[in-house]
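ok so heres the complex, three chains, lmk if somethin looks off
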Amino acid sequence: MTIGKIFKTIAAAALASTLIVSAAYAETIKFGASAPKTGPLAGGAEVSHWPAIKLWVSDVNGRGGIDVGGEKMLIEVIEYDDRTSGEEAIKNIQRLINVDNVDFLIAPYSTGLNLAAAPIIAQAGFPQIAATAISDGIDEIAKQWPNSFWLLGSSSEFAKSVVDVLVTLRDRGDIGDKVAVVNVADAFGIELMNAGKPALEAAGFEIVYETSYPLSQQDFAPIISAAQAAEPDAFIAFSYPGDTFGLSAQAKIADLDVGAFYVGVATAFPAYLGANGAAAEGVLGAGAINVDAEGMAEWRARHKQVTGMDADYWASPMTYVGLQMLEQAITKVGSLDKADVIEAIKTMSFDTVLGTITLDNNINRKYWTVGQWQNGAFRGVASTGMDGEVAPIVKKGWK
Amino acid sequence: MSFIINGLLLGGTYALIAVGLTLQYGVARIMNLANGENLVFACFMAFWLYTAFAINPILGIVIIAPMAFVINWLIYSYAMRPLVNRSKTSGQLEVNSILATFGLLFILKGLMKFSFGGGYFTYNYLAEGISIFGHNYGLNRVVAFIAAAVIAGTLYLFLNYTRYGTAIRAVAVNPTSASLVAINVPRASAFAFALGGALTAASGALLSSFYTFHADMGMDFTMKALVIVIMAGVGDVRGAVLAALMLGLTETAIATFVDPGLTAAGTYGLFILVLLFRPQGIFGRSNS
Amino acid sequence: MSRLNKIFSQISKQEKRIALYCAIAFAIIATLPLFDQGFYLSISVNIVMYIVLCTAWSLFSGPTHYISLATAAFYGIGTYVVAIGIKDIPYPVLLVMAAIVSGGIAGIVGLATLRLSGVYFVVFTLGLSELIRQIVTWVQTNFSGSSGLYVFTDIREMHVFWQLLGLAVIVYIVGWLINRSRLGFAMQIIGNDETVAKHLGINTAISKILLFMISGAIIGVVGAIMAPRFSYVTPPSAFNPIISFQVVIMALLGGTKRLWGPLLGVIPFTILFDQVGVYFPDQTSIVIGVAFMAIVYLLPNGVLGLIETIKQKFTSSTKKEDPT
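and the predicted structre for the whole thing:
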């Protein structure tokens, strides 16, 4: 082989590789994601939102990409941090649409940010599959922005289910009538409180203590001791991750003697069990999954393997489901036409890691509402018609 | 009644960071906006020591505080001293130090996010109840309070009964006169800045045993510390401890009896009253 | 009227020419939405917003050296005035109301705190924003049962841009008038030495409060103009303390000795902040922090100071070369 030949070979190889790269580039579908990486909700997003996206990208590209009209296209995600600010989220989404020219958007994290971003996403005509928003306004919102889809449910269903679980426990003679109820002063907590209070009263419960506290609350000793002083039979907190951990730790320390203890978002995080150990037993929380459902154990194992983190027992799979839905709608349409994809999402039936999902007026009507830590797993105890509900157990102390 | 003990326990942890800040601002004349990040950094260190090496946070202080001392000494020597030398007036220094420590704040926060992520951290150390007057309180809080009291007491003795401590207090009162009586002001300033950082770090290590912490919470603590320092009068260590306990009590009382959502409002309400009626601080002496 | 005439008669030819150039420049910038309605318009809105905020901030903080971190408070108040009233009150009226409410609160704050100086003032203003945010959150969650307010209007990004641009013109004219007036003169003396100012018979408190109110009112209007852009207003976004910090940093980065100084800080910083968010989304904090340190140590007097140093060097070297 002469030097000239070697040179030619190298040149040819280099040319070929650039061609491959550019060819691969042309077949890439670009997704844009804006969600918290900093700010008060970063903690929640780091558990439920970002890892689910990472896993999905790895899964899709692992099988060669998304099937678009018979051709496999690899996917790529452009990520921005919205710093838990609606203003920043809007700016990010504008950039994703206008500068990065993404083909699709991955909906933001949390109720507030999804609501904040909805108008701008609608204006640009992108589908918005919100997997981490709970609101009673979703019917109205879905009507106003028909490009938006809401998977996680409505606040009143969540609140009603909590009351139903308490009623079950009361009917069994496990708890009495007195309830202490607190909420975080953010979209999620306020909506659940607004729905939960009348539901509790209608079910004949007596609210002996109620308060709200800010998102940035750091010290939970006063709340728990004030609640304790009112001697409730059940304690309900419509809380976000930071406060869920804080209230639980304090309740354990104060040995809050209740037969039912409910905390909101992050109860379903594996870290909750890690932080509370045996004391987590019997704790009720928002959302759930059916851990025994087909494929769930395998999905969780893959989540751990790919992202290095355990998936939570609620929003992680739902975020993944939202992405699966987008993928399946694109495949069904066979093109990257956003309007067609939106129409497809409205009517089609999706085969997801959480089973078959169909939407009714852009809203998922079947979902888990209350889960409970039972023997080291977070199991669904209430839902709007899911399979695999188990009976709630009474909370027996904090040891 | 329980709110008094809860308030005092909380105030005790505020005391150390406030004392740390009052040393940095009162002696070294640096308004360190990154002090809260210093505290959070110590939280992460304590977490790491506890989870990786089973070193409890109280013992962890022995490692964390000297480390913070060295880091803060370096920060002062290489980042702050050029500003001190360059600034002709205290107003200029204030502006410069606000800017520089704001930069420091971002860097530290970024490093923590880079190494630990943006998640919520918590670990179980003495997370059990201890009964005081018939009510249960966190044993970790009580232990942290005692440790804070010991540290603050030692510091008080050091500042009041040692030669070097007296020198530092002299610099706090008047750097120009202090240099006239052969006190090495730059060195005393660096020492005070480093010591302030070490105290803040100690407070962080203690705090981590009972707080759910995350990389973004530094600013909250900087604010609380600033409010305490100004309430007490800048540079007043004893005042800072008392003001910290007062703040702890006020916050707890409002959270228990009024509404947890108005805790911060109460803090600033208290602060406004102090500023309006005792701008030199509750325990400060009037300059005029 | 006669005073106004007097001011206008004092305008020199050079100033008239500058005014003309500025008018042309503004007119050109105002055509931007005709070319791009996406990202470039969006970042321009941010730039103009911060130009107005930083210039308004410098009106007060520039001459007095009082670092106010109350920007978020006034801004948030303005945003909330619009968010609360948008359904019932015509939008232009809301802008005026935003100015009055923010200015009024600035006046009250001024009365209470302007006796304070240095770090006391800094912490108080930072605390004030937090206080107002907490109270708004508390009132909203306890009495209106929601955490946010929707602001639905026909106002699009380009309208926001034009309004901000208009406000920028007003701010520059106000700033220019203040510099020429007794108030501006008084502020300069106060900034140099407050004791001297008092001895000269300047009512320092009233001068400062007046300026703080003007500054606060303008910031409030910015918040009001921005409200329709949020579409969903919550206390954390309206009263975001980062706004206060960014304003201080950008204004000081640019330099506050001249009216147009902050401009020099806002443009590079807004673009830098944006680019960092794009290319280093996970390391925004570190990169920004490093950038700040570099700025403090390399540009102590802001970009303005750098330009003036270069200019001085240039003129002194040309003078030396000049044999006469």
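quick notes: The two ends of chain C are 47 Å apart (CA to CA). thats all i got rn
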